[in-house]
Amino acid sequence: MATYREQLKYAVHEILNDVIEQGFHHLINHPQQSDDLNRIIKDATDELNYQLLKIDSHSFQKDSQELADHYAKISKDAQRKSLELLSRLQKIQQIDILRLRRV
Question: Which of 88, 1, 96 is nearest to 37 (CA)?
Fold first, then answer.
């Protein structure tokens, strides 16, 4: 049976990896935006590594409320950052759509 810690690691990995994958996909199709897209991919990768390290960086007792709060904060922070990065990516995608309409 997976522990909450393992489930959280999986969830953090999934939501931030989604940003990374979308960034790479857009980069392949729109290399003219490489600087901005590479920055988003790097930020998502850095955030993923940071949040995964944070999961085990604590001194709380197993099954304590403090540990539950620690994990909840990580979950919330990872979701917030993912949405922020996806918003940045979406702005780049919209610029490309507008540019294509003009052509």
Answer: 88
For residues 2 and 94, give the distance between their C-alpha atoms in angstroms, rounded to a whole number: 40
* Amino acid letter, 5: R
Tokens standing for residue 13? 């990995």
Note the pTM of the prediction, 2 decimals.
0.88
Which residues in the chain show pLDDT less than 50? none
pLDDT digits (tens, 9 = 90+) for 4-15: 999 999 999 999
